[in-house]
Amino acid sequence: MPESPLDIQIKTLPHQPGVYQYFDKDDRLIYVGKAKDIKKRVSSYFNKHHDYGKTRVLVKNIVSVKHIVVETENDALLLENNLIKKYKPKYNVLLKDDKSYPWICIKKERFPRVFPTRRVIKDGSEYFGPYTSMKTVKTLLGLIKGLYQLRTCNYDLSEAKIEAGKYKVCLEYHLGNCLGPCEGYESEEEYQANIIAIREILKGNFKDSLQQFRTQMRQHAEAMQFEDAQKIKEKLEVLENYQAKSTIVNPKISNVDVFSIVSDEGYAYVNFLQLSYGSIIRSHTLELKKKLEETDAQLLALAITEIRQRFNSNSKEIYVPFPVDLGAGIKITVPKLGDKKSILDLSIRNAKYYRMDKMKQIKIVDPDRHANRIMAQMKADLLLSEEPRHIECFDNSNIQGTNPVAACVVFKDGKPSKKDYRHFNIKTVVGPDDFASMEEVVYRRYKRLLDEDQPLPQLIIIDGGKGQLSSALKSLDVLGLRGTIAIIGIAKRLEELFYPDDPIPLYLDKKSETLKVIQHLRNEAHRFGIEHHRNRRSKGALTTELENISGVGEQTIVDLMKQFKTVKRIANAKLDELEAVVGVSRARKVYNYYHKE
């Protein structure tokens, strides 16, 4: 059989670092990836069986491969990120964050203005940011305005125009917010000294400004200029107060980027903390939509490249929860203890809270979307033919072999439907026999649903291993329901899921939402069953003694318990009190039982 064009392309790929691109039959780019060795990585897609369905679909759709060889892995990482952002291929991770962020601009001009902007223009001006919220920008600009008098006008303050007297000072000068460079009242050197101090504040370095203000305050005090000294003191307090509000980690930890990741089946959330001069100066969380079976390490590497590009970070050291490959020139640290570990834990906490907030928002805004996603996930994870919109879970309770009972709990759309919960008192089984009890309750439950023409569940979960599952299957066989309803057993010890006629259990990812729903069902069934079991045992303890009285029936016991509440009060009651509740004949029998002497 002749080789296909795709086979030939794969055979001729180089053993070099670079980026590979997959195209479909319509020559559309459907996937971009990076690799240390392009040939090895691409070949792996076609040489092994993929467990993940989406990857199998991707491979089936690949018609041609193109590649770009680069010098280093770091270059490959950057190129991959740029191509994904530009072409948005169908099977690549989706970076769910395309908004434009605010910056603070120091304009390239004589007597530079400092102002917020969302547009970065390459005109030689300096841009600090981007910041993740406008509130941070306003706070910083408010701080700068309180410390330094800068111009806000957009005049061309060239030396010639100022000397020609072209401009007049405005209201800002009279309010004390500007020192009047437009009329030559402030020199360019004095103004530039302020800009240098502002530049350091925007970088997170308050040390120089604090030192400068302390020196000025001392000079004014020594010259008996106490009003001026007080103004400088107020500025010092503003600056110190702002610095105290930013999270101080450790002055030794300087110019470091911290990244952490929290993920589930469909999404990953990467938090970024930027540290400068011992303070956290930025926090940002990026949401990534998984398209294939990407690992946390792959997603984190992609997110780090994207975030560092977006926020223009040149830090030479990065803290991460596990090793990632970002190429040469960047020091990767995996903190184990101390301040470094604390700051990494803070980043992880931020990522977790971001994910929780997202989940809560989805539940509020679009509860159906949340349910639909979980149902689709459960169908895929549990290999079902339809979504398990209606699930029922059974559990037996027979503590110390007494009062055997069973519980059936019902979940609809992944949530408990408590009005549909059912208790069962075991009727046909003598002694503690979990298998026979399970067989009885499953038969009774679905016999009744069939008789009453009630809807059947799409999934039955049996709390127990192979034995309980086999017992439940016997009842489904008798009722002719085997194959109609999916049924699985869950063993407690290792959370193993057993299927009919399959000796090998299924293990779900511990972070899986499917496993969490199954555990919730199992725990609810256990709680509900235990509650009923306790009620039966306590009721038995209360009424056993009264049942021993000859001629006293169940209704008499109920009437007496309603009136007297406890057996002890019944035993101590006077004859006329008993007669008032149950009549003369039965009252005498009860009274004589407790007053035999």
UniProtKB/TrEMBL annotation:
Compartments in which it is found: Cytoplasm
Residue ranges of every copy of the UvrC family homology region profile domain listed in the record: 262-476
Pfam families linked to this entry: GIY-YIG, HHH_5, UvrC_RNaseH, UvrC_RNaseH_dom
Tagged with keyword DNA damage: yes
SUPFAM superfamilies per the UniProt record, alphabetical: C-terminal UvrC-binding domain of UvrB, GIY-YIG endonuclease, RuvA domain 2-like
Domain GIY-YIG, chain residue ranges per copy: 15-93
Subunit structure as annotated in this protein's UniProt entry: Interacts with UvrB in an incision complex.
Role played: The UvrABC repair system catalyzes the recognition and processing of DNA lesions. UvrC both incises the 5' and 3' sides of the lesion. The N-terminal half is responsible for the 3' incision and the C-terminal half is responsible for the 5' incision.
Designated name of the protein: UvrABC system protein C
Source species: Winogradskyella rapida
Gene that encodes the chain: uvrC
